[in-house]
Specification:
- This is Replication initiator protein RepSA.
- By secondary structure, this protein is an alpha+beta fold.
- The protein folds into 3 domains: about 30-65 and about 415-480, no CATH class; about 85-130 and about 170-320 and about 395-410, no CATH class; about 325-360, no CATH class.
- It is built from 10 helices and 13 strands.
- A hairpin with a 7-residue loop joins strand 7 (about 265-270) and strand 8 (about 275-280).
- The two termini are about 45 Å apart.
Length: about 475
């Protein structure tokens, strides 16, 4: 029997835990699990089992138990798309988004290559103004000129995007616009088809029979804390990407329809407390033609790269925080029910419902005021269904950061399935090289499993191994960018 280690002389908890792991029966498996996560910062810890049996013979072909792992649990990647939370997983998400957008522009991934000849546009839609803010204006010739405050701000000036006159800035309107931005986008896609039919002088029914409008969009925060949308819009034939659109479905028609849809798409929000509000797009929007070839133009690859970059960003770019502000024990209500069934003041938040006081957040006053406004609006009866207190850290935005129409391209799920199939094929090839038996193609296999979530994150010793993995991957990427010949 192995004697327990006396590690009291090691001060560092991480190093102490690493020594303990190194003295387990299979330290190689510990490092293998961590390395397979490819630098994930907060892996999911699971406990459970998977058994694969031959349906005909009822024999167990493969089995896996997390209890057989040296640490007694299975680690899997968190899959977070936000670069601020997990750079490793966000890079994978960005790569998948790139291929999804690229396939819808130039074909591949079961999308016809003929789509590169369809009319396509890169559309940017913005929010209206809710008050003047510090900015870096330019002349028509592109030369910088002073801000309205009289100063010429640097590109990284902290005051950029903040109100010139905070007391008169419409924070309520800004938060409500963010909260309804997703619904406004849906309204825009409806009005886009109507505007296109009107511009072409035909009925909506005739248009739908001859043309399909496909799109993919991503949301991005501006410095002023409001989201704006970047979208790829494409014309297809009636059967989707496999058919060409009619000759009259041109880029000029698409640009005209976008202008009409931006002007007409409206949402009305009724409230006795803050007054009725009309949610609409800003006057500044842009429609650029996407070119399959050309230097200095918006090519397929450039647009796909733009969208992939935006897809991994979050609200931190607007100066807010990347975590929910809702107190978990009371779910933001400010109270918990005691054994007697009565409401008791939540001891964690002292009745505020906030996980941390808003006044203590390490953010600028502009972001804090938007958070405070979202929290207050969320507790009004007419806005209860919006749950703005839940999305206060997102400055009220509740929509999907990226979405697409059904027929635009492949899906993220399909891309993950392809990657999973590739890894399975690699594992089968490794079994063949090792002389192990492989599955018969004519055998029907049935897999049963049961998994339970334990926690997220690494053990202290595993975190040291993960840090080394991240360092190695960063070094490899840097050497590749520098053109190292041995990579």
């Amino acid at each position: 029997m192995r004697r327990p280690l006396d590690l009291r002389h090691i001060i560092s908890p991480g190093l102490r835990d690493l020594v303990e792991l190194a003295n387990t029966d299979d330290f190689d498996r510990v490092t293998e699990q961590v390395r397979n996560l490819r630098g994930c910062t907060s892996p999911v810890n699971l406990h459970g089992w998977t058994v694969t049996t031959d349906q005909t013979t009822k024999q167990v072909v493969r089995s896996y138990l997390s209890e057989d792992e040296p640490s007694g649990r299975l680690l899997t990647t968190c899959g977070n798309r936000r670069a601020s939370r997990c750079p490793a997983c966000s890079r994978l998400y960005a790569a998948d988004t790139y291929h999804l957008i690229k396939a819808g522009l130039s074909g591949g991934k079961n999308v016809a290559e003929a789509v590169r000849d369809h009319p396509r546009a890169f559309v940017t839609l913005t929010a209206p103004s809710f008050g003047p803010v510090h900015n870096r204006p330019t002349t028509d010739a592109g030369k910088p000129r002073p801000c309205a405050c009289g100063e010429s701000h640097s590109q990284d000036a902290p005051e950029l995007g903040t109100p010139l006159r905070p007391a008169s800035y419409d924070y309520t309107g800004a938060v409500l616009w963010n909260a309804h931005a997703g619904a406004l986008w849906a309204r825009f896609t409806t009005y886009l088809r109507r505007a296109l039919a009107e511009h072409l002088g035909m009925t909506q029914k005739a248009l739908n029979a001859a043309l399909r409008v496909s799109f993919a969009k991503v949301a991005e925060y501006q410095q002023r804390g409001l989201v704006h949308f970047h979208a790829v819009v494409r014309f297809d034939g009636p059967d989707g990407h496999t058919t060409s659109p009619p000759a009259w479905a041109t880029f000029d028609a698409l640009r005209a329809a976008v202008g009409l849809a931006v002007e007409r798409a409206r949402l009305t929000v009724a409230s006795d407390a803050v007054g009725d509000r009309v949610i609409r797009w800003g006057d500044r929007f842009q429609v650029d033609q996407i070119s399959a070839l050309g230097d200095g133009e918006l090519t397929d690859a450039k647009v796909a790269g733009y969208v992939a970059k935006y897809a991994t960003k979050n609200a931190e770019g607007a100066g807010t925080v990347d975590r929910t502000l809702v107190c978990r024990p009371c779910a933001g209500r400010g109270y918990v029910r005691g054994p007697d069934g009565f409401r008791d003041l939540c001891p964690d938040c002292e009745g505020t419902g906030q996980a941390e006081p808003l006044t203590d957040l390490p953010v600028q006053q502009h972001a804090r005021q938007m958070i405070r406004t979202a929290w207050a609006l969320g507790h009004l009866p007419e806005f209860a269904d919006l749950k703005l207190w839940k999305w206060a850290h997102m400055l009220g935005f509740r929509g999907h950061f990226s979405s697409k129409s059904r027929a635009y391209s492949t899906t993220l799920g399909a891309l993950r399935d392809v990657r999973r199939a590739w890894r399975t094929a690699q594992a089968e090839a490794a079994r063949i090289r090792a002389g192990l038996p492989v599955d018969d193609e004519n055998t029907t296999l049935v897999t049963a499993s049961s998994w339970t979530y334990l926690s997220s994150g690494y053990r202290p010793g595993e975190e040291l191994i993960a840090a080394q993995v991240r360092h190695d991957r960063a070094l490899t990427e840097r050497l590749k960018s520098e053109g190292a010949p041995w990579l």
